[in-house]
Predict the structure.
Amino acid sequence: WDMFVLAFVERLFRPTFKKDDFMLGKKLGEGAFGVVYRVSLAEKPGLKEGDLVLKKATEYGAVEIWMNERVRRACASSCADFMYGFLENSSKKGGEYWLVWRFEGEATLQDLMLSKEFPYNVEKMILGKIQDEPKGIARENRIIQTIMGQLLFALDGLHSTGIVHRDIKPQNIIFSEGSCTFKIIDLGAAADLRVGINYIPKEFLLDPRYAAPEQYIMSTQTPSAPSAPVATALSPVLWQLNLPDRFDIYSTGLIYLQMAFPSLRTDSGLIQFNRQLKRCGYDLIEWRKTVEPRASTELRKGFELLDLDGGIGWELLTSMIRYKARKRTSAKAALAHPYFDKEGLLALSVMQ
Ligand code: ADP
Ligand code: MG
């Protein structure tokens, strides 16, 4: 009840918005389930003006509002700063869900990764420069380590809250110019297993390029969604049994791979990799054996980066990309991996 009252009071003091408060700016994205705009607030006494993001969503917007409210209270630093969500009823039949966030910044990890400058363009944005490493592969490794640390930190926050994102990809990771860290966005496909929200897998929402081989988050033997109170009691057990969070870990492993290998950053490169990995029975070590002997200089550079410090990066990568979910590391365990031990690493100081 305390939690409930606190949440209610907090909600009361947050600004509320309605349709006419927004002046639409540039369209930032458009998917099957909604349109996203950069917006500014119309002048209104008592409201701070600011740069905001508005998503006009279909019926899935309801789930996305729920997820964002929960993140706001439980692990706010993991995701973009959510302000308000409501059902906008005046236009279409049935209405649309409108969701409002603070505008975090111009660039997603996808934008940054596709630049020729990557990862040095990220180094410039993260607070403080890496002092002790000359330009070259070791320095690139250090920047990528920092990004991975921030990503896993945000993911651990979500998973500890009981939320599985299910659509982790560079397009859904935004660089927050305010905190100088990467944050997760787009909870439209997320599942909250503790209360059974969006419990039935919506596999059609998943992006096949970043999806782990298991098609469903929960095993197909899991009975259909129990009612909320039952789910609350059961779900920690289900979580243990099915380890649904490992789906996000697989996707995060693919992002790590893309950061290490420039040729895998394009759509076609990633799709080709997925095909090769499938042929190798999802065994990354097997994949390496087949491609390394005839690897391009670019590909070889990726292996060289992962082999630094006794191959600690390669070790982490292979613990994330595995066929069986239960053999994959968790976000929390990955953060404790020796890969993140190295002194001088920016990740931990920047995350505070
Ligand atoms: P969808 O993928 O369903 O269209 P997203 O929530 O991923 O919706 O948002 C689409 C795009 O809008 C993102 O890829 C990002 O470029 C931008 N965006 C979303 N939220 C923010 C935010 N809080 N700050 C800045 N840009 C954002
Ligand atoms: Mg998205």
In short: Strands lie at 22-31, 34-41, 51-57, 82-88, 96-102, 163-164, 173-176, 181-184, 191-192. The longest strand covers residues 22-31.
